[in-house]
Amino acid sequence: MTTAEGWTAAVRDRLAPGRLLPLGTAADGAWITERTVRDLLGAAGAAVRGVVPGVLRIGPAHEDEEDGPTAAPGSVRITAAFAAVTGRPLPELAEGLRAVLLAAAEDAIGLVVASVDLRVTELLDAHPPAAAPAAPPPGRTSPATDDPLALVALGVPGVAGVTDALGPPVRRHGDDVRLELAVTAGRRPLDVARSVRTAVTAAAPEGAAVTVVVSELR
To answer: What pTM, to 2 d.p., does this model score?
Structure first.
């Protein structure tokens, strides 16, 4: 089991925002919560004309492969259900949605995507009335910390704050260090996580294995 996989197993039961998904490749040592990904992809899909988004799931690409994994390790599968509004050919609508979800996942987030599976749940004659705007969520504040590695991370461009969805913002386990943070909205989580890992690795004791977890966008 790798260090990152060990962190995943240790916090899975406590992870309210969903499972941890790998950012980039195993060499990047970076993870992101499923809820953060789902929020970003949901917003991207909702902007496609003729699409009424339904259930959206993101998980390891190999978890449902009965004959053994065939996808690249660390890649994810996106599964999206949606209602289609008449006016565009269904294949065209589906391909447009698939392209948008794929671009958002890979280009805007940094996931390695094995497949995007779509399921049409309903055909609609017209787009349903827009719902009333939801009240904005209460503002979140970063937990107070004077940990020197957290202070290093906070100095990296694109870091909006440290977070504690999984426990303390900085957690040490032997020679391993896991740092949890929020990324500024509009910045690519993978790029920020890579920069944080480089900076924290340089500041950590020699030989420390650093894992970065993105649990929020602000």
So the answer is: 0.84
Residues counted in the chain: 218
Query: For residue 2, which of 202, 176, 179, 213 has the smallest C-alpha distance?
Result: 176
Q: Tell me how crowded residue 40 is: count the other CB atoms within 10 A of its CB.
A: 20
Q: Which helix (H) or strand (E) holds 42?
A: helix 34-46
Output Rg (C-alpha) for the chain, integer angstroms: 19
Distance between CA 216 and CA 35 in Å, rounded?
8
Instruction: Give first-to-last CA distance, the chain, whole Å.
Output: 32
2 and 26 in contact (C-beta within 8 Å)? Answer: yes
> What tens digit of pLDDT does each residue of 150-173 get?
999 999 999 999 999 988 999 999
Residue type, 181: L
Structure tokens at 143: 């937990």
Confidence of residue 141 (pLDDT cuts 50, 70, 90): confident
Whether the Cβ atoms of residue 66 and residue 46 lie closer than 8 Å to each other: no
